[in-house]
Structure formats: structure tokens, C-alpha cells
Amino acid sequence: MPLEASQIEHYRHNGFVSGLRVISASETADAMHKLAEYEAEHGSTDALHMKSHIYFSWLWRIARSEKVIDAVQSVMGPDVLVLASRLWSKLPSDEKFVSWHQDVNYFGIKPSDAACNIWIALSDASEEAGCMRFMPGSHTQGLIDHEITMAADNLLTRGQTVRGVDMAKSIAAPLAPGECSFHHGHVLHCSQPNRSSHRRVGFSMILMQPHVRSTTGRRSASLLCGEDRFGHWDIDPEPTCDRDPAILARMNSATKHYVPENAYST
């Protein structure tokens, strides 16, 4: 279902919009079941943070579902690529958190303002469970310096952090299972530890318009919808099965180029 005009305006003005229903309760339950099956065999999905949307065919079905595509095109236009995706998990009473940061500060893309993130809740993502918080309007500030902390409990790759953000001015974006949020690649956001008694799981994709270029050499992306008339990216194959070894090799190769040493301001 396309976004309403008021929702699109909220995104443009504040840098995010949330609470959009895109998949059903049965689809979230099925996704959680498949995730549990994988984890029973292989453990955490933390290492699969580049192209999980094509490594797991069930995630690709979610990504390509009609309501997701409608919502994505409302924000991004008809032609959309997926640069990266990740499953985000916090266990009950988990101390893991995500510090204040901007996504595109370390993606190696230009122009950086032609990217956004869709975050789909596969389980309850309440404030207690550590939902995302956004700093409204911060997407208008451009790129901001990040400090690399390497904090052990920070879910970000290197604990990249923007200091001095006033939490009191931020807005929480709780999501029920099957709901999603969109946020601009420049908007400051974070999430706090999961203080609930249940697991919090979300699936996110970094989306960009096809005219965007890589600043770290030739890379690949998935064509989510529409067409790519620019050819700046190699197009990833669509999954034909779960856990294709060729996709895993492609994902591992992409991960090496994801966070270049010079991508950070500090």
C-alpha cells in the first residue's frame, strides 16, 4: 500500500516515518521460525550483514512483497536498488545497543542523500524492547563526524558514534510485528538495550536510487523494483533457494569492501 501524502511529508520533514503495516502476522511468524531453524544449525546471523536478503530466499520474498514495494516506491521513486541488508536481534534483557549514528556515513556512496533504510519488525519492537529512536530533522545537517569506539555491546561494526546528542529531543518509533519504518540515510538514530522478556528482531535494507555511485570501487547491489538505467552497480542474482553457497561467497566478498578505513570523519 503506497504511503499517504501526510506520511510522505512526515518523512521529508522529520527524516523518518514509522508504523506502516507491510507484512502479515503469519509472515512474521514464518520468518521467525525459519530464522530459528538457521540459528539452531549455525548460530547467530551477525556475520550475514551484507546480503541476507538474497542469502535467505524467504527474506527476498518479504523484500519483494507488494506492500513493501508500494511503500518503498512512495519514498524512493519507481527504481530502487538494495545495497545491503541485515537481521538485527536483541535477546531478552540484552545489553546490546546501537549508538547515535547516520547510516550513510560509512556506506561509501555518492550522493549520500539518495539513500534510506527500511526496518521491518519480525517481532515486537516496543520501547521496552529497544526500538529505534530518531532525532527529527537531523537529516538536514549533512554528514556529521563519528567517533570509532569499538564498544563491545554496540551492534554497529565499529561502535561508530555521534557524541553530544540530546536523547530527550528524540522520538521513539515502536513497531508491532509486520510493521516497518523508513529513515533517511542522514537522520541520526539509535536504539537502546532490550529490557523486555521477549526477543526483538528486525530486518533492514539499505535502499538507494540507481544514479548513486560507489566511492570505494565497483560493487554490486540488488534490483528491488523498477529498472537500472545507469549501470553503476553489478546486479546481484535473485535467490533460487535458501543459503546458496555462491551467494554466501558473494556476501563475504562484499563485506570486505563495506567499511573502508577512510570512510569515517574521525
Description:
With 266 residues, the protein is of the alpha+beta class. The longest helix has 18 residues, at 25-42. It has one domain (5-263): q2cbj1_9rhob like domain (Jelly Rolls, Sandwich), CATH 2.60.120. The strands form 3 sheets. It has a 7-stranded mixed sheet with strand order 1-8-5-10-2-12-13. Strands 3-9-6-7 form a 4-stranded antiparallel sheet, with no helix packed on it. The protein has a two-stranded antiparallel sheet with strand order 4-11. It has helices at 5-14, 25-42, 52-55, 57-63, 66-76, 245-256; strands at 16-21, 80-90, 98-101, 109-110, 115-121, 132-134, 171-172, 179-184, 189-191, 200-208, 213-214, 220-225, 234-235. It is globular and about 45 Å long.
Q: How many strand units?
A: 13
Instruction: Please give the share of residues in helix.
Output: 10-25%
Q: Which strand order do you get reading across the main beta sheet?
A: 1-8-5-10-2-12-13
Query: Helices and strands, in N-to-C order?
Result: HEHHHHEEEEEEEEEEEEH
Uncertain spans, ≥5 residues at pLDDT below 50? 260-266
User: What structural class should be given to the helix and strand makeup?
Assistant: alpha+beta
CATH class: Mainly Beta
For the record, what is the CATH homologous superfamily label?
Answer: q2cbj1_9rhob like domain
Q: What is the CA-atom radius of gyration, in angstroms?
A: 17 Å
State the major sheet. 7 strands, mixed
What is the global morphology?
globular
CATH topology: Jelly Rolls
CATH architecture: Sandwich
Task: Give the distance, in angstroms, between the N- and C-terminal Cα atoms.
Answer: 41 Å
Total domain count: 1
Beta-strand level of the residues, as a percent range?
15-25%
Counted by DSSP, the helix tally is 6
Task: Output mean pLDDT.
Answer: 91
